[in-house]
Amino acid sequence: MRLGIYGGSFDPIHYGHLRPVRQAFAALELDRVIYLPTALPPHKDDEMAPPEARYSMVEMALLAEEGCYASPFEMRSVAAYTVDTLRHFRRRRPDAELFLILGSDSFAALPSWRQWRRILEIARIAVLERPGTTIVAADLAPELRDALAAERARLLSNLPVPISSTQVRRAVASRAVDLADLVPELVLQYIEKYRLYRGRTAPSSPT
Length: 207
Hints:
By secondary structure, the protein is α/β, with parallel strands linked by helices. It has helices at residues 15-27, 51-62, 82-92, 104-108, 116-122, 142-149, 165-174, 185-194; strands spanning 2-8, 32-37, 68-70, 97-103, 124-128, 153-155. The chain has one domain (2-194): Rossmann fold (3-Layer(aba) Sandwich). The protein is built from 8 helices and 6 strands. Strands 3-2-1-4-5-6 form a 6-stranded parallel sheet, with helices on both faces. Strand 2 (32-37), helix 2 (51-62) and strand 3 form a beta-alpha-beta unit. The termini are far apart.
């Protein structure tokens, strides 16, 4: 099995998280992609929507995405580190070839991640083009250049989608943009029902 791993805060998930991964799915001939909404992203300090809300939105967004599933593994009350997540999936699927899917900005910053050299050993890296970010090999850490040369990392020729979660949150707050072009309909309905990103947060339970 060829298994893609794609983590993030997904605050909220949008088409910029979906369409490039769909292209990666085809380019890498993956059998499955696992989205991992992270309860406590170690590299983000901003206040976010509750983890349960972000996870629910990911589940709804993936209903129409063949071969893509959400995992609750990083929905924990401690910071989630990618190296631990990869170890988890390596233990669960020792037969699988793991592909860590990253945006080009995250790939360039990989040396700031915990045990990042171990990440390169556990999984291959699939690098998605991100709007406004260009990978310059000479600017990369030597280990990242070596990974590209050895095909342990691969730069994908996907079509960048110029959408960010910050843009979505601002659009919700201002109500000045047609959100149908930014997020799937079910996600939009969830945001509207619980009035997310308007100074209120979704409840952790229906009660």
